Amino acid sequence: MLNSLSGRFLILTTVFVMLAEVLIFVPSVARFREDYLLDRLERAQIASLTLLADEMIDPALETELLDNAGVFNVVLRRDQMRELVLSSPIPGEVYEDFDLRDPTALELIEDALRCLVDPTNRVIRVMGNPLRGGGELIEVTMETAPLRAEMLDYGLRILLLSAVISIMTAFLLFLAVRKLLVKPIKGVVGHMQRYAEAPEDAHRIITPSAGVRELREAEDALQSLQTQLTQALKQKDRLAQLGGAVARVSHDLRNILTSAQLFTDRIEMSEDPAVKRMAPKLVNSITRAVSLCENTLAFGRAEEPAPSMMLFNLAEMVNEVLEAERLAIDGHDISLSEDIPAGLMVRADPEQFYRVLSNLIRNARQAIIGTGAPGEINVSAQSGESDWIITVTDTGPGLPPKARDHLFQPFQGGVRKGGSGLGLAIVAELIRGHGGSLSLLRTDETGSAFEIRLPMGDL
């Protein structure tokens, strides 16, 4: 109970209300003390009127008048003369004087607190203004014990009333908090628990209904999070199924390509000049296809092999990739060019970097063919201070907004209709495996430019 939100709110409310009542209690007691002393002055003045009316009164009556006023003697100052009107024996010396003619609030509070904490019965002198022009000043002497007793009784009644008010207020607030906050929060927690049991079930997504603005915002955020998570889980489930199918296909395809690789060994022994010229390219293509199948199987097991780093001539590899792409252009008006120093050597995994360049150039070629207009693809490279910079530019239509928003994300950054968006995701992953980076320099209606940065490391 006390560890709950409503329980702690109940305790805090009670404490704060009591604190507020204490702050009110001190000036209230000070005001009660002032009223008590003024009442004694008024009674003393009324008692003195009897003597003024008849200068000779019985001593017993005088004593009765002083007891009724609660004072020992009464002094009036009139016409610049100080006159002892009523008197009786004083049990001790006057301890302190208090002037009530023009006291400040701080003085009243200080005097009241000193009276409360001092249990000693003392004799004090109190001065004030007489009522209805009854003179210039009236003074009385009195004991502090009755005053302190009255102040304690008043204070206890104030504290008891404050406690009752604070408890009632806290209880009402407790009920309000349970209805307006705790119950809706428990409802949200219940939704979260039911959703956690079956996050793939879209029917368990929360429907915002809270009337409190902050809680409604929390429900809206939870609904958005649950919707995204449900979609992501469904997509991951489809990807898992697709991964299993791709692994089976890659396994069978690898066996077929291995058999084809054996046949290419015989083709290489042919005396036909055209066959001799095309056979090495065919062998390289089949080798790369077998390697791709093996890498796909490894990727399905979440075991993408680490790159085998070695130095190779970048210009030769780019020429090889461009030659393969020229075969796929098939009569389209697309020019392929490269601007790479002939002796530029880079350190990377040749097979993986071939896949990187092939994916980027193929994406550019398909984008240009999709427009039906002529285009150009260029690959350039240079050596920086600490890395190699390779840039692939094209004059295609540029990337659409969806592709830019989900760049390098599989199954979301596709450009072509029906495209999966895997190409750029694979390229980015391979480059990260080399310790490098892939970035989009620009994309607009005049084309796109991708930049690859490979760290040189210790050559």
What does this protein look like?
By secondary structure, this protein is of the alpha+beta class. Among the domains are: 5-170, no CATH class; 306-455, Heat Shock Protein 90, CATH 3.30.565. It is 58% helix and 17% strand. It contains ten helices and twelve strands. It has helices at residues 5-53, 59-69, 105-117, 145-197, 213-267, 273-300, 314-329, 350-371, 401-405, 422-433, and strands at 73-78, 81-86, 94-99, 123-128, 137-143, 310-313, 334-339, 345-348, 375-383, 387-394, 437-444, 447-455. The protein has a five-stranded mixed beta sheet. A hairpin with an 8-residue loop joins strand 4 (123-128) and strand 5 (137-143). Helix 5 (213-267) packs antiparallel against helix 6 (273-300). The longest helix is centred in the middle third of the chain and has 55 residues, at 213-267. The mean pLDDT is 80.
Question: Any chance you could write out the topology, listing elements then pairs?
Answer:
Elements: H1 5-53, H2 59-69, E1 73-78, E2 81-86, E3 94-99, H3 105-117, E4 123-128, E5 137-143, H4 145-197, H5 213-267, H6 273-300, E6 310-313, H7 314-329, E7 334-339, E8 345-348, H8 350-371, E9 375-383, E10 387-394, H9 401-405, H10 422-433, E11 437-444, E12 447-455
Parallel strand pairs: 3-4, 7-9
Antiparallel strand pairs: 1-2, 1-5, 4-5, 6-8, 9-10, 10-12, 11-12
Helix pairs in contact: 1-2, 1-3, 1-4, 5-6, 7-8, 8-10
State the helix count: 10
Note the run of SSEs as H and E: HHEEEHEEHHHEHEEHEEHHEE
The N- to C-terminal Cα distance equals: 68 Å
What is Rg? 49 Å
The percentage helix is: 55-70%
GO molecular function: ATP binding; phosphorelay sensor kinase activity
Keywords: ATP-binding, Coiled coil, Kinase, Membrane, Nucleotide-binding, Phosphoprotein, Transferase, Transmembrane, Transmembrane helix, Two-component regulatory system
Catalytic activity: ATP + protein L-histidine = ADP + protein N-phospho-L-histidine
Enzyme class: transferase
